[in-house]
């Protein structure tokens, strides 16, 4: 798989997220930050940290980072999905640390948690899609009377034979891959 376009999309999306999160804020943030931000234990234990915020802000923090998790999971090999989780956390932690020194930004533990949840959801979506794609899948009848596909034969051809010859339905089941089912359309179902 050529991942160059995916890398390009990831860089563009990361640049957009950075602009939104550490660029100039069009609103006032005075008085909304516990001193020390995410590095302060008081910020993590303060009830104000976890009880304030509008639903739209919470949803935005999660939704903004779902594509981060998706792109990280797609760029890494499927067996390295824990690295995609770590990448999402590291990206948001880096943003929150930079926000500590910016006068018009707020470093908030709630943002760190919500952004990490978003990237985790993105990784989960990719892993679920890969699980569906990898399933070897559907059991269906093969053609009989010596017309079943050989080890190198196509199961899509066997499905066509079974469809054309209804008496072939009593044969042994043949496993069809997800890709074959998608390529064969309704005929293979």
TrEMBL record:
Residues 143-159 have a biased composition (Low complexity). Keywords: Membrane, Transmembrane, Transmembrane helix. The keyword Nucleotide-binding does not apply. Residues 11-128 form the VanZ-like domain. Pfam families: VanZ (PF04892). It comes from the Bacteria. PANTHER family: INTEGRAL MEMBRANE PROTEIN, MEMBRANE PROTEIN-RELATED. This is Glycopeptide antibiotics resistance protein. It comes from Agromyces terreus. The lineage of its organism: Bacteria, Bacillati, Actinomycetota, Actinomycetes, Micrococcales.
